[in-house]
Amino acid sequence: MEFIELAGFILQFSYPYAKTVYGFSIPAYIALIVAGGIFLALHACKAAALFIMAKKQGKKKLLWCAFLPFANTFLIGELGGEVKFGNLRLKHVGVVAMLAELVFVACRGFVLGVYAYAFQNGRTWFEFEENMIGWGFEEGWLSDGMYTALNACEIAGYILSFVVLIAFIFVNIGIFRKYAPDSYIWMVVLCALLPPVEGILLLVFARRTPVDYDKYMRERIEAIRRRQQAQYGPYGPYGPYGQNPYGQNQNPYGQNQNPYGQPQQGSAQGNEAPPDPFGEFSDQKGQGSQNGNSQNQNGSSGGQNGSDADDFFS
């Protein structure tokens, strides 16, 4: 499939409008040769990686699959094993991916082959007017049956591209969970966006020892719990009953302190009355207010000075 992706990308520089849009164009056969050369380099990386992985996992009967296109997709699925996605369990997902890849490559390869032949032999027309581009095949060059087949393969290729994408996502989840469990998510996303990099990533991790992902995650969770118990005890940082996290008989502001930095006051200071919350208003009355307060403390029931101090609205 990597060759089809590469050929489709490079062949756009051979379209009739390439020189007008990109400023240059290349012959179709050059585009296919460049795509083939890149594909062979990437395929060699993937083949070497899968050969090492299969040998380490003891799958000696499947070693030959590492070197053949389509068969290597099946091998990736077998090396990844059963894929668990929530409650969904997928077995032999490599078979589904391989079959979807075969049909996709057949449809897309037919379309690209027709395009490449037409571009190389000048069987197309091209118009550019008022920033509008138009192109097509020469009239009568393709029969009605060929046009129908071409359109059918175009539509099937677009539909199958989504099927292949989903299948390859699950295949890569299985393989990268075994060889890079801590960072498999971004690798799966990268391979979905750029399928040719899959072989390079597999080669990087090929010599690692595969792990059971579920067992690996359980061991990680257990290690985290042990570290927490070593630091806070078996009940965690707040104890079994949600005790004060600042320590026994302690508050976060220090002993005998309130959040405003003043000593705690109250009954510990004896019988001294708390300050008058409205003192700022009574102070404005001057000496009369002080006399009124003195008379109230001595048990007087009234008086002119007392009434002046108590008259808030006077």
TrEMBL record:
The keyword Hydrolase does not apply. The keyword Transmembrane helix applies. Keywords: Membrane, Transmembrane, Transmembrane helix. This is Uncharacterized protein. Residues 232-266, 286-299 have a biased composition (Low complexity). Residues 232-314 are annotated as: Disordered. The chain crosses the membrane at residues 20-42, 62-81, 93-118, 155-177, 183-206.
